[in-house]
Amino acid sequence: MARMRQRTRTRLAGRSPQLREVPPMAYEITDNPLRGVEAKQSTNGHYGIFDQGAQVWSWQPDGTEPVIWMSAKSWFAEGQPIRGGVPICFPWFGPGRNGDLYPMHGFARLQNWHMSDVKDTLDRDGRFIVEYTLNESMTGDQAQWPYPYKASFQAKFTPEYLGLELRVENVGTEEIVFDEALHTYLHVGDVSRVSISGLEGATYLDKVSGAEAEVQSGDLTITAETDRVYASTGEVVIHDPALGRDLIVSKSGSAQTVVWNPWVDKAAAMPDFGDDEWHQMLCVEAANALDEPVVLRPGEVHCLKQRITLA
């Protein structure tokens, strides 16, 4: 790690004075509280991902507030869900379409993925790419979803955006059907002041009221417990006046956008969620679930991408 920092200083010293200097940044493999990899910048820049679930837990471009939210109450224990970050939901969403699958959001987020590659240009441009793989030999016998598959996940951390890509390949001899989501927890200044544009006219399932075909009118604001699955393939923008910024969430390979905030009562009922933490978090996630699962024939590959840009 010391060598990385020295190399950064040497390169910066030799740059032309008209180029913008990138503050020194280096990465290290960490194991506290869980094994993974982190990169830290000279002031407050921070990237982080855990091996468990290949779960991104920090993206904070240098000089900004965190963009990814983490609960201070999260258990950070092997084999237990991590509250916050970007859990990968696979091969089912929630308890599944029939409501009887366990663990919630599938087994992939509780498994240790294999870190297959790290690409580091942190000292040049502040960019950092981490790649992971997972397959049925690693996840073992899964009676609720017993199919051969190969999954890979790439997290691309940059000063401008966080890029996420989940690829799933059917390596078996029969068709497979699965749900997936990039269950992104975003840090906001005050969720009651946030507005979300880009969903106007989209139909949605309201999982709080049970209404199945509501239509969004205007921007979405959060005024109570919110759990909606929108039929939407487009970009959304989270306008956050408390932090003075917009977050642009764009995606591909996704038929749905999920928006969630537990509000007062549900937050208090969750043991790994602080009673008042709902004020500063909002989930906006790319998904294919419920009535829009992914169907893959043998040999086919599906790619789900999501990009969060700080405006």
UniProtKB/TrEMBL annotation:
Give the EC number(s) under which this enzyme is classified. Answer: 5.1.3.15
- Which GO terms label this protein's molecular function in UniProt? carbohydrate binding; glucose-6-phosphate 1-epimerase activity
Q: Which InterPro entries match?
A: Aldose_1/G6P_1-epimerase, G6P_1-epimerase, Gal_mutarotase_sf_dom, GH-type_carb-bd
Can you supply a Gene Ontology BP term from the record?
carbohydrate metabolic process
Catalyses which reaction(s): alpha-D-glucose 6-phosphate = beta-D-glucose 6-phosphate
Q: Which residues are annotated as active site?
A: 183, 285
Q: Which UniProt keywords apply?
A: Isomerase
Key word Nucleotide-binding present: no
Which top-level enzyme class is recorded in the Swiss-Prot or TrEMBL entry? isomerase
List the Pfam families: Aldose_epim
Similarity comment: Belongs to the glucose-6-phosphate 1-epimerase family.
User: What name does the UniProt record give this protein?
Assistant: Putative glucose-6-phosphate 1-epimerase
Organism whose genome encodes this protein: Propioniciclava flava
